[in-house]
C-alpha cells in the first residue's frame, strides 16, 4: 500500500528541515565570501535567518535581513532576486541534490515579532496577570471541579 500522507499539514518533514538548513548555511557562506560578481550585493551585509523548502524540494523560500543599516530590506531583496540565478547555480554546485531549488527571497520578520512579544510582556496588564499566583486561578473554578 502506498504511503499517501502529506506532511505539509503537520509541518515540514525532517528532510525538508535538513535541506533548508543546508541551503541556509551554503547561501550564508556564499554571501559572506562575496562569490557573486555584483558590487551592489557584495557591499551589503545580509543575514539568512531561515530557509523553508517546499514538499517536493523544488522551491526554497529564503528569509533575509540586511545588517548594520547599510541597505533597506527592499534593496537587499531586489539585489538577491537580480542575482537569483547565479546564487542558485552556486548553491547547487556546493550541494548534492538531484534538483537545484528555485530561490525566492522574502524579508525576515523574526526580529519584528520578537519586539512585539517584548512590548506585550511589558504591558502592565500582562505583568499583573503574570504576577498573579496560580492559586488565584483555582478560585475561579466551582468547588469540586476536576482539573
Overall description:
The chain is flat and about 60 Å long. It has helices spanning 14-33, 39-42, 73-82, 84-94, 110-122, 124-131, 135-139; strands spanning 46-53, 59-66, 102-107. The longest helix has 20 residues, at 14-33. With 147 residues, the protein is of the alpha+beta class. The model is unreliable at 1-7 (pLDDT under 50). A three-stranded mixed sheet has the order 1-2-3, with helices on one face.
Number of strand segments: 3
- What integer value in Å does the Rg equal? 22 Å
Number of alpha- plus pi-helical segments:
7
What about the largest sheet? 3 strands, mixed
Strand content: 5-15%
* Mean pLDDT metric: 82
Strand line-up in the sheet with most strands: 1-2-3
Distance between the termini: 43 Å
> What is the ordering of alpha helices and beta strands?
HHEEHHEHHH
Q: Helical content, roughly?
A: 40-55%
Q: Give the low-confidence spans.
A: 1-7
Q: Give the overall form.
A: flat
Helix-strand category: alpha+beta
List key phrases describing it:
single chain; 147 residues; alpha+beta; 3-stranded mixed sheet; 3 strands; 48% helix; disordered N terminus
